[in-house]
Specification:
heterodimer; A: about 80 residues; mainly alpha; about 70% helix; about 0% strand; B: about 475 residues; three-stranded mixed β-sheet; 20 helices; 3 strands; rod-shaped
Chain lengths: ~80, ~475
C-alpha cells in the first residue's frame, strides 16, 4: 500500500473531526486504495496523474454523508 | 463531533453518490463470498445498545435504521485486508474487462450504425442537393451592349442584308481587318470584342471570317445556342463599321447600300434584343436537377441566372431548392410551372416548411433503422457470448426485444447513452456493473478531456470500490 493511503486517511479525519467511529472510514480508505492498487498493479502514491487516495476519501465522505442524511431524513438526527 | 455544517461541507465537495456495487457481489463459493458471509448483516443491534434505555424515540429510530446496516467487518477484518483486496480486484477487473471488450464494443458498433442510419436517411432527403453553376457568356448583360442597342422601338423597316450586299461587304476581308473595323467604330467595346474573339479557337476565327458574308446573312435564323450569340454581336459591329465608311476596301457606299446597312443594324438589334428578352424568360427555367451528375441531386444553375437571382432579387438557395422540388424539375424535361421571380419569399417559406417535414421524416426513419441496428448487433453479441447455452440465449433475446420495444430510440437522447443502457442490460445481465463503469468514464472524460481512458477506468473502479466498502459499514449512532 502506498504512502498516499495514510495521507488520505488523515484528510478524512481532518475533514470530519477526530472520532473513534471514523477510524473505520480511514481504514476504508486504506482498503479502497489497496483494492485499486491490486487492480492496476502499481503503487498509486507514485502516480502523477491520479490522486486516487484523495478521490477515494472524497467518495467515502460523500457516501458517509449520504447515509447520515438518510437517517436524518427519517426523522432522526446525525450523531457521531 | 460531526456537525450539520461539516456534513454540508462534505456534500458540497463531492455531490451525491448513488448506490450500486453489484459487480462486487461475490460469486457463490469464492473466497470473497466466504468473507462476505463473515461480514454479512447481523440484523441485530450491538449488544451494548438497547432501545428505550434512556433514549428518545428519534434516537431509537436511528438505532433501528443503523442496525440494518450493521456490517462492521472492515474494521474487524483488518488482518484480512490483502485477501479482500485481491478478491475485489479480481472481480472488478472482470467488470472492467467486460465493460471495455464487450459492452463498449457493442456500444461503439451501435453508435456507428446509428450515425450511418442518420446519414443514409438524410441523403434521401429531397433537399440534400448541391447547387452547381454552369458558366455562361454574360454578353447579353453587358451594360455597354445595352446602351449600344438601345431600348426604344425598332424601325418597321428593319430587315437583313441582301445576299449581294452581304457578299460585297465581306469579300476578301481578313481577321486583322475585321477586328480593326470593329475597334475603329467602337473603341469602348474593344475589351469586350477582344474577349469574345479570344473565346474562339483559331480555326473558328478563320472559319468565321472566311464565311462572314454567310454568317451575317443567316445570323438571325441560325442562332441555335443563345450562349454563342456573340457572333451576332460581332456581325452587328462589323456592319456598323461598314455603314460608317471604315471598311478599307469600300471607300464609298451607295445611298441604297447605306440604307440597307442601316436597316440591317436595326434588324440585328431587334434580333439580339429578342434573344435577350427570351434569355430573361429562359433563365427562370435554367435551374435543373441534374440526374446525370455524379451526385444525383445536384441542382445545375446557369451562372448568369444565379448571379441575377442573388443580386437583383435577393434570392436564396432555399427558394431555388423549393422551386425545383415544387416543380419537379428534372434534367432535360424542365417545364415552366411557376415563376420563381414573382414571389421568392413564398418559395423560401415553402422550402422551410418542406424541409421541416422532410427532416422529421428522415429522423423517424433513422430512429427505426437505429433500433434495427441495436437488435442486430446485440443479437450477434449474445450469440458470441452465450454460445450453445440456448436457454440463456432465448431468455436474453426476450429481454432484448422487450427492452427495445419499450424504449424505442429517439434522436433527442444521446445515442451512446441509449446504446449503453440497452447493451449493459442485455449483455451483462446481473453479472457486471458495465453501464456504471462506462457512464462514469464517459462523464470523467468529458469533464477532463486530457485524461487518458485508463485513468477514467481507474476512477470508475474507485467509485465501485467506495460503494462496496460503504455497504460494509456500521453506522454507529451512539
Amino acid at each position: 500500500m502506498g504512502d498516499g493511503t495514510s495521507i488520505a486517511a488523515e484528510r478524512v479525519l481532518t475533514a470530519v473531526g477526530s472520532n473513534t467511529n471514523l477510524i473505520t472510514m480511514a481504514n476504508s480508505v486504506a482498503l479502497g486504495v489497496s483494492v485499486i492498487e491490486n487492480l492496476i498493479g502499481v503503487d498509486l502514491s507514485k502516480d502523477k496523474e491520479l490522486d486516487v487516495c484523495h478521490h477515494m476519501a472524497t467518495l467515502l465522505c460523500i457516501e458517509f454523508n449520504r447515509r447520515m442524511m438518510a437517517i436524518e431524513n427519517t426523522g432522526g438526527r446525525p450523531i457521531a | 463531533m460531526i456537525t450539520q455544517n461539516v456534513l454540508v461541507k462534505i456534500r458540497d465537495v463531492g455531490g451525491y453518490l448513488p448506490t450500486s456495487g453489484i459487480a462486487l457481489n461475490a460469486l457463490p463459493g469464492t473466497p470473497l463470498a466466504q468473507l462476505n458471509n463473515d461480514l454479512s448483516y447481523t440484523q441485530t443491534l450491538p449488544a451494548d445498545i438497547k432501545p428505550s434505555e434512556g433514549l428518545s424515540d428519534e434516537e431509537n429510530d436511528i438505532l433501528r435504521i443503523s442496525a440494518k446496516r450493521d456490517v462492521g467487518g472492515v474494521e474487524r477484518h483488518t488482518n484480512d485486508l490483502s485477501i479482500i483486496s485481491k478478491e475485489i480486484s479480481s472481480r472488478l477487473s472482470a467488470s472492467l474487462s467486460f465493460a471495455r471488450n464487450t459492452v463498449n464494443a457493442a456500444v461503439r458498433a451501435i453508435v456507428d450504425a446509428g450515425d450511418q442510419a442518420i446519414t443514409d436517411c438524410s441523403s434521401n432527403s429531397r433537399f440534400k442537393m448541391l447547387i452547381t453553376h454552369v458558366a455562361a457568356d454574360p454578353v447579353y448583360f453587358d451594360n455597354t451592349l445595352t446602351a449600344l442597342l438601345g431600348t426604344g422601338p425598332r424601325l418597321s423597316t428593319a430587315k437583313p442584308l441582301s445576299a449581294s450586299t452581304a457578299q460585297l461587304i465581306t469579300a476578301d476581308i481578313n481577321e486583322t481587318q475585321f477586328l480593326e473595323i470593329i475597334k475603329t467604330n467602337s473603341s469602348s467595346l474593344d475589351p469586350l470584342v477582344t474577349a469574345l474573339w479570344s473565346s474562339l479557337s483559331p480555326d473558328d476565327r478563320s472559319l468565321y471570317v472566311s464565311t462572314l458574308g454567310g454568317v451575317i446573312l443567316n445570323q438571325p435564323v441560325s442562332m441555335g445556342n443563345i450562349y454563342k450569340d456573340h457572333l451576332a454581336l460581332l456581325s452587328y459591329l462589323y456592319i456598323l463599321g461598314v455603314k460608317n465608311g471604315n471598311h478599307p476596301a469600300l471607300h464609298e457606299l451607295s445611298q441604297d447600300m447605306r440604307l440597307e446597312c442601316s436597316n440591317a443594324l436595326d434588324y440585328f438589334a431587334v434580333q439580339i434584343t429578342k434573344r435577350i428578352e427570351q434569355y430573361l424568360l429562359d433563365d427562370k427555367s435554367n435551374m435543373l436537377i441534374d440526374s446525370t451528375a455524379s451526385y444525383r441531386d445536384a441542382v445545375t444553375v446557369i451562372d448568369t441566372v444565379y448571379k441575377r437571382w442573388v443580386a437583383e432579387k435577393n434570392g436564396t438557395h432555399d427558394a431555388i431548392l423549393a422551386y425545383m422540388v415544387a416543380n419537379n424539375y428534372v434534367a432535360g424535361g424542365a417545364t415552366k410551372q411557376a415563376n420563381l421571380y414573382a414571389n421568392p419569399e413564398s418559395f423560401a417559406k415553402t422550402y422551410q416548411s418542406m424541409s421541416r417535414s422532410d427532416t422529421v421524416e428522415s429522423r423517424v426513419r433513422a430512429n427505426a433503422a437505429t433500433d434495427n441496428a441495436i437488435r442486430r448487433i446485440l443479437t450477434q453479441k449474445l450469440g458470441e457470448l452465450l454460445g450453445d447455452n440456448k436457454e440463456e440465449y432465448r431468455k436474453r433475446m426476450i429481454q432484448l426485444d422487450t427492452w427495445v420495444t419499450a424504449n424505442p430510440y429517439n434522436h433527442g437522447v444521446p445515442l451512446d447513452l441509449h446504446a449503453l443502457r440497452v447493451a449493459s442490460e442485455v449483455l451483462s445481465g446481473d453479472a457486471y456493473d458495465s453501464s456504471e463503469i462506462l457512464l462514469f468514464m464517459r462523464g470523467y472524460l468529458q469533464d477532463n478531456p486530457t485524461a487518458s481512458p485508463s485513468t477514467a477506468a481507474t476512477m470508475a473502479a474507485c467509485q465501485l470500490v467506495a460503494k462496496w466498502i460503504c455497504s460494509q459499514w456500521i453506522i454507529n449512532t451512539r
